[in-house]
Specification:
The chain is mainly beta and 1016 residues long. It contains eleven helices and 59 strands. The chain starts with a strand and ends with a strand.
Length: 1016
Amino acid sequence: MRKYLLFVMFLASSVVVQAVTTGDVVVSPENKGVFVDKFFYDAKIHNNPNLSNSKLDDLFVTDGFNGVRTPVWGNINQPAHPTNGVVVGSYYTGHVNLILGAKARNPDLIVFASKKLNGDDSFPDWTKDANGVIPDQYAILLADYIEYMATQGIEIDVLGIDNERKYNEGNILPDRHKDIVDELILLSVSRGFPMPQIIGHEDFDPDRNNWMANFMNGDREDYLDIFGTHYYARWRPLVKLQSDLAWAGNREKWHTELHWDQKDEDDMVEAEQSVCAMWDCTDNDMNGLMWWSYSRSGFRGSIMKDFSVPLIGAYDLATDDVDGPDTTTLGKLQTRAFLQGNQLTVFALNVNDTVSYPDQVFRVDSGRIIGDVSVLQWTSTNDTAGTAYTVSSTGPQTFEFTLPARSISRFSVTFAPDALFSHYPFEGNADDASPNALHGTETGPVTYPAGREGFAATGGIEVPFNSFDDLLTTFWVKTDASAGSLITGDELAVGLVGSNALFSVGTNLITSFKPLNDGRWHHIAAERTMAAGEMRLYVDGRLEAYGTDADATLSETNLMLGGIDGQLDEVRFFGRALQSNDIYNLRAPSVLLGVGGTAEERGPVESFVSITHCGAGSDYPYIDLVENDGTWLPGYNGTQNRTMSTATASDPVLLPKAGSQYFKATTGSWWRGMNKPKLDNLLVEAGSYSVSFYAGDADANVLFYSAANTNLPVSGNHIGLTATDPNSPVLPDMNATVQTLLHYLDPAVGISFDVAAVPGDGQWVQWTIDYTVPTNSPMIGRQLGFLFRKPSGNSPQTTAAFDGPLMIDFVPAEAGGDPSPAIGYDLAGSTATPTDDYHALPALLTTGTNSIVPVVDLVEEGLEQIVISLDASTNYYISGSGSENILIVDHPMDAWRATEFGTNATNPAIAGDTANPDGDTLSNELEWTLVTDPWVVDVPAMNPTINEPYFIVSYDLRTNSLYGVGVSWSDTLSDPDWRTDDVTLTKIGQVDDVETWAALLSLDETNKFVRVGIEQ
């Protein structure tokens, strides 16, 4: 112990400590906002458009626009509707060609027609009077237009009957709007054209003259399908927009004329105003967007394009930054993020003349970033396309890039969601066992009986859901019902129909061919991959159904579990499709990589790499040996192939559960496989196996187990697992006892049996056999097989039966005989070097904790990074992220050393912890701790004071010091009993890493001496 004594007094002063907000830009992929599913090209800006093929390709292929707004003419300059029933088609030629060209590139194009205005001459004379448009006459004009466009091969999907009422004479207030729609509905019926959806009110700015409020208060809800408005960047009347949106209810909400206002201002400021106006829309759940005068070139066009295209078909994600979440104030740091499939785009506006953000950290708080980050950054309005950069991510969830003052930035990266979204084991509740804690809600009577693993659930449970593009759900079900729901949403469902499993995505539906209503546990896996439009349904580990055209975008936010007379267990949802090992490869364990702490060159935190061995890497331990096509895969009895026939519950002699199918045979042996025992490439590993199945015989004299000892089969019965060398198959003795099945090559294999009669089913028994394979067994790595043999020595010969599914559970051996694989890794991307910066890890990582121990030096190196990436291997699966980061920070004194000692900073005789270059009583370590000068003989600063009712001393101390401070007092310096009672320590200030502390001692009539002790 080292103690340095100070006798000091100091005047205490109060300091206000302000909370510091993190400076990271944080994106929350799990917190999705609006899904922007519509982005229009506004053709109303053209009187007679003539877009080239390349321009059409740019808009409707490259940029991905999926809608067009086109004009309804009829003003004085474009008299396309001179009278009732007449349409002058020449005025529409350019727009018809544009729409047909767009539809050729996108057959699902949305055609949105809207009245074109021309001040007080917006409507033909025959459609209006002094009060505005005449509803029945104007409806005729609209019907004429819809019918004409139909003759050109164009159906009008959406119709705007008004446009910026402030600038036209139509006077279409809510009542007149309703009357026009009523008349148009009648015309659509009488003339036989499809009624388009109606959008409104499309005024010059939101909430003008309380139009939406008046409309909704007048019982007119059915006369407006889509809310649409205009919204100018120069004003950004956000409060008005939010007021209108509150009246819009559950309708789709479109911004139908987004302006880039050119006001002779700085172009960078105009860009910020315009982009933020667009974000006002997405922040407030508007799913349709459209620029007036969309451009793709120049500074304005490149911003417009590069900030719009990533929004098409994308979710708005919650973001936060140093200026708060979803900031709307101009001049602040503005950040937004959008997820388009697996492409994450993050935008950052720093249109501020004085503030920059060097090495700004961007972080996703779930999932991971894959690969490099593509950057476009504009720092000058002369930059017409942005400057492109490619940067590496700094971790699985972070990247960094500088945001200079007056800069606009776009970052694009591939994003992978967390594999496991939620997991409901139903262990007495509806809680989510995943880290996301997306707990379910019981919607009615729910019970939790014994289940497939632990407990299961009956009844209805509502759970949160995220509509991933690629998704997977897996679960167990046990039921006698022939129909009902298992998982239900508006667009996604898994259930039973006609006793078979059903999986639907949108309007696409596939069903299994295997009945599930046999009262036994079955495993279901259903997946959808959006890009390929494929869906698959697996039952008990086998692909049973396949479908295509399942590429619809989903918007489910909640699902209902249950709804069938039966039990569900271990329901899991994944934000990915099946991995190749999920179904078929049951042999390898999985490993989970984790890291902890930040490695300090000297300090209390030691970081580590943690490898968790997760067991058998398969959620699908059922292997169904009963093929639904009615045949058993040919077996082998040592001399010839054998085939078993099947029977159903209609068999009058042997009756399993109603409706089930099983195998029957008279005598002999059957191997699973062609000429060797084989179960879907499942290899023997050290650990324990639990095998469960059903067997039976119509003859009560032919038993599969001994009446005297139900834990042992009758001699000659062979039912259970076996193994053989795949390169040189060797069959066991056919007349040997069942104990030899898995240990004929290794007597050390342990076997136990449990046989129970199935109530009401005659000679059917449920048989469970447990095996234990030691770590040194010669069978490890051999193929696991299943043997079924009915003894042939009994008379008369009668039918024996076997019924699947065969259930095989595998649990790896535990510590002591742990077969955990050695795990390869690499350090690509690391800035820290083994041996120089930290003690090198072993060549192969192992299960458990692998410590990261930094090498202590005197060098100021800054933050260094270790990137641990697990190597792919057939010996194990990588569960979750296979790459993690660890940071190594300098010794807390190293920066101080570099400042104080310069070129001598690495010389331990001068700059070392215990060195004392100024020759006073303080070592360098204490000079740094107490904020004194290592080159000057000095003592810590002191300023005594008395501030009734306290006697006060103070001292400075480094935040990262490894020393503690104790304050004591005595009545006399000779008093050996220094006391610590009646002393209060208070932190009163901090500048950088230097803290100021005050010790307060109550005044009384005695003399007092104060001692400050620095202790190691």
